[in-house]
Specification:
Blueprint lengths: L2 E2 L15 E2 L5 E3 L2 E14 L2 E8 L7 E5 L3 E8 L11 E3 L19 E3 L2 E3 L5 E6 L6 H6 L4 E6 L1 H4 L11 E11 L5 E2 L7 E4 L5 E6 L2 E8 L6 E5 L5 E6 L2 E9 L2 E3 L4 E7 L7 E7 L31 E11 L26 E9 L14 E3 L11 E4 L2 E9 L5 E5 L5 E5 L14 E4 L4 E8 L4 E10 L2 H5 L3 E7 L17 E3 L6 E5 L8 E6 L5 E7 L3 E5 L6 E8 L4 E8 L1
Parallel strand pairs: 1-24, 2-16, 3-6, 4-7, 6-12, 13-17, 16-24, 25-28, 27-34
Antiparallel strand pairs: 4-5, 7-9, 7-10, 8-11, 11-12, 13-14, 13-15, 17-22, 18-21, 18-23, 19-20, 19-22, 23-24, 25-26, 28-32, 29-31, 29-33, 30-32, 33-34, 35-36, 36-39, 37-38, 37-40, 40-41
This protein binds CU-O-CU linkage and copper (II) ion (CU) (2 copies).
């Protein structure tokens, strides 16, 4: 059944009398950016103040404009109130050192400032920034902490494209939010009934009658969107997560899952003094994608999913009121954009498998639609490392979705090219450099990437599901990028298995389970956080027991070196 909620404010919780002008977040450029994370209030409903969070304002954040190759410094100050309200700030899609990445390990305590500084290495494109605190991402993003990043470079600049921010080039941050009966922002409900763009409910945008550029970001916690226009006009896709494509592609619909971005060109020149809506054609989302008519089956349900009128519905997101063109309008759409040379599948030397699943050993009757879900039978653990990646390696990651819901899988540090989705080459909207890919229920996705920079043998990067409550519930893992030349291990000698450390945290005997398929005698070494060797011994068994009772509490790195494999793990000693 197709629900049509077009041409009317959804107004589940409130019907708004008038439309609201779309807010365009202020743009900041330069090389030093001062970002204050703060409390505020926002009126999503007439005359109701809802407490929100924002950066340099009550809701959302300034758009950061970076130039490729610049070195930027971001001073992020946490002024949030509420006890224990630390946060982090992650530059989603940016290729930066692990310690500057703003994952859960780079805490910004209250009333303190974190100042990462890094060089902009990504190509021109649309990225974003948002908090990433352990178990807090959904709350902090839903309360309003999210902003857009625009990177500019010479290749993009050489093309005839709309690029005047807020004039013919618009940030379009699409979100839905849940509210409780007191109109407070709620999370982990199925009632994200209020759509908004740039934090504005029922918005309209005055746009010129010419070719305009929309930078679409799905900043929602859970919902995918199927974008299109109310008059069914075509539009041109020019960029995906990591920037411009090699050629533009004419589309009529574009699906974006959580965290994904796309840049589209829309020709409004024939619509002077007319109006057209950006629509979510939710009825066209396939079964199993959050926001579709149905997810799961009779036994595996998301509680209250069917009570949310947005699910499976078509509805307006943004009214575009077309007015006079600008003085020098862009009137053409370039076909050829920037060259791409994806890594060849045959060049990959490591294949990693990631199983997205419930932990059936933990949950006797797992709910395959609702979760909680893990990756490779693990929930996220701040103090352990799930994968070790060696520098200068091209890898294929295969994501196996064993559940009944689609998961938008995101990796930090690198961008990738999708090799295939359920065995088929990616559709045009999934080409180009990506950092999120939606893995359909019951299917697999492969992507290829290469790790070339930023080795750090103690600070990990994350990979995770970008459904924010899945991420917060533990559907996340960590990886270290290690420079093998520093560790005197040849580049082609790869990880052949895993070392399991338990219990972790430990206060007495630490058990190490070492892989069966290693060869020869290995050396076990344990280092403290200062890098001092606290234990060294040889090992030729697959089970080692280490006494830790005399060790000061803290985080330790366990290393097992064999002639053919090197393993790392972190353990906490209490
Ligand atoms: Cu957009 Cu790990 O995040
Ligand atoms: Cu990210
Ligand atoms: Cu998920």
């Amino acid at each position: 059944m197709k629900k049509i909620l077009l041409f009317f404010s959804i107004g589940i919780t409130a019907v708004l009398a008038a439309q609201n002008s779309l807010a365009i977040p202020p743009a900041l450029s330069g090389t030093t950016f001062n970002l204050t994370v703060q409390n505020g209030t926002t009126q999503f409903f007439p005359n109701v103040n809802t407490p929100t969070y924002g950066i340099n304002g009550p809701l959302l954040a300034p758009t950061l404009i970076f130039n490729k190759w610049d070195t930027v410094t971001l001073n992020v100050t946490n002024t949030l109130t509420g006890s224990g309200n630390s946060t982090t700030m992650h530059w989603h899609g940016l290729h930066v050192p692990a310690m500057d990445d703003g994952g859960p390990h780079q805490l910004i305590l209250q009333n303190s400032t974190w100042s990462p500084s890094f060089r902009i290495l990504n190509n021109a494109g649309t990225f974003w920034y948002h908090p990433h605190g352990e178990g807090k991402t959904d709350l902090h993003v839903s309360k309003g902490l999210a902003g857009m990043i625009i990177i500019r470079d010479s290749a993009e600049n050489a093309l005839v494209l709309p690029r005047t921010y807020g004039v013919d080039d618009f940030p379009i941050i699409v979100q839905t939010k849940s509210f409780d009966i007191l109109n407070q922002i709620a999370i982990s409900t199925a009632y994200d009934t209020l759509p908004m763009v740039n934090g504005i409910v029922d918005p309209y945008l005055d746009a010129p009658a010419q070719v305009v550029r929309l930078r679409l970001l799905n900043g929602s916690s859970d919902r995918s969107f199927m974008f299109g226009f109310s008059n069914n006009m075509n539009f041109e896709l020019i960029g995906t997560d990591g920037g411009l494509l090699d050629t533009s592609t004419t589309l009529n619909r574009l699906r974006l899952s959580n965290g994904e971005r796309s840049e589209i060109l829309v020709d409004l020149s024939a619509l002077l003094n007319d109006t057209v809506f950006l629509v979510n054609y939710g009825s066209e989302l396939p079964h199993g994608v959050m926001g579709a008519d149905s997810v799961g089956d009779a036994l595996n349900q998301i509680p209250d999913y069917y009570l949310n009128p947005l699910n499976g519905a078509d509805y307006n997101l943004l009214e575009i009121r077309v007015g006079s063109p600008t003085v020098n309008p862009v009137t053409t759409i370039p076909q050829t954009l920037v060259p791409h040379s994806p890594w060849l599948v045959s060049s990959a030397t490591v294949n990693r498998q990631f199983v997205l699943d419930t932990l059936s050993e933990v949950f006797v009757t797992p709910n395959m639609a609702e979760g909680p879900f893990g990756i490779n039978r693990h929930f996220f653990d701040m103090d352990s490392i799930n994968e070790i990646v060696y520098l200068n390696t091209t890898e294929i990651w295969t994501l196996h979705n064993k559940t009944m819901v689609a998961h938008p899988f995101h990796i930090h540090d690198v961008e990738f090219y999708i090799v295939d989705i359920a065995g088929n080459p990616p559709p045009p909207s999934q080409r180009g450099l990506k950092d999120v890919v939606l893995v359909p229920p019951g299917d697999s996705v492969r992507f290829i990437t290469r790790f070339e920079d930023f080795a750090d043998d103690s600070v990990p990067y994350m990979y995770h599901c970008h459904l924010l409550h899945h991420e917060d519930d533990g559907m996340m893992g960590s990886f270290l990028v290690i420079d093998t030349t520093l560790n005197a291990i040849a580049e082609n000698q790869h990880l052949a298995g895993k070392m399991e450390c338990f219990p972790n945290p430990v206060s007495g005997e630490l058990n190490l389970l070492l892989p069966e398929n290693k060869t020869g005698v290995g050396i076990l070494r344990v280092y403290n956080l200062l890098g001092e060797l606290v234990l060294e011994r040889t090992s030729s068994s697959t089970h080692e027991v280490i006494g830790t009772t005399n060790w000061p509490a803290g985080i330790y790195t366990v290393q097992a070196l064999y002639p053919d494999v090197m393993l790392h793990a972190k353990v906490i000693v209490r």
